[in-house]
């Protein structure tokens, strides 16, 4: 059986394995094909490419921080983007804008925590991000170091990063994201679209509209979806002619899920590859 995991994070964002270590771990987990999908960056692509083991095909991608402005309050969502041209200027500019905002946003969160006497610093958090896309898991790491919580998950509770010290980030309008990814020759797949455990989710009608605007697929098999939610995603994808994916959303030790915990069917993968024109699969 071909084992395909299309959603994995490295230290280029909030994973804990370097891109090179991620490649080695993918091979060790028995994957045949894996995607590197760091938040709002292609910064891990080169190192992953250089370290790719024989026998492991690499799909270069990213996970875009998006927002739907059609609800009040607006709803954040994640868009996986595969095999796009990273030099396409408009998409690259949007990603850079989000990454820069991630820095000031993380600094604001740290300031709020410090104002309440929490002994962590922005340089410490910045250091954990190691030059990659900074995110709340890096602040969680500082909270763990300071002995205030034991796990990343605990740091996302409402008394910490989940609500009390929450600051939104400068996400990309989701329709703009779909358009830019397509223009860069990439393939957009909506990540964990019905994961109510992560917060509010968008209505099916938005997914209908996104499909008309160029959305290519929906991630169904994901640890944050219940079996019922996975069925709903599959049914919706079938109705709209979208491909269905499954993936681990591996984050190293920032999450408990392991590589290959959920997989994508070869037929769906082949449709993604056949549609992409930005960069090729490696291997
Ligand atoms: P940010 O992108 O900075 O808003 O942080 C969100 C990231 O934190 C997502 O990529 C998730 O992978 C991670 N995350 C969200 N909720 C949790 C949680 N409860 N436990 C661990 N990681 C989480
Ligand atoms: Fe993440
Ligand atoms: Fe995500
Ligand atoms: Zn992810």
What's a concise summary of this model?
Helix content is 39%, strand content 16%.
Describe it:
By secondary structure, the protein is an alpha/beta fold. The protein has a domain of 166 residues: Alpha-Beta Barrel (TIM Barrel). It contains 10 helices and 8 strands. Strands 1, 2, 3, 4, 5, 6, 7 and 8 form an 8-stranded mixed β-sheet that branches. Helix 1 packs across helix 2 and helix 4 packs across helix 5. The longest helix has 27 residues. The structure holds adenosine monophosphate, fe (iii) ion (2 copies) and zinc ion (ZN).
Features:
binds zinc ion, TIM Barrel, binds adenosine monophosphate, alpha/beta, 283 residues, binds fe (iii) ion
Topology:
Layout: E1 4-5, H1 19-28, E2 33-39, H2 45-51, E3 57-68, E4 75-82, H3 89-115, H4 122-129, H5 136-145, H6 152-155, E5 172-173, H7 174-183, E6 187-190, H8 204-213, E7 217-221, H9 227-240, E8 243-246, H10 266-275
Parallel strand pairs: 1-2, 2-3, 3-5, 6-7, 7-8
Antiparallel strand pairs: 3-4, 4-6
Helix pairs in contact: 1-2, 4-5
One fe (iii) ion binds next to loops.
Question: In CATH terms, what is the fold-level topology of the domain at 4-62 and 76-85 and 179-275?
Answer: TIM Barrel
The total strand number stands at 8
Low-pLDDT runs of 5+ residues are none
Question: Would you identify the CATH H-level superfamily of the domain at 4-62 and 76-85 and 179-275?
Answer: Metal-dependent hydrolases
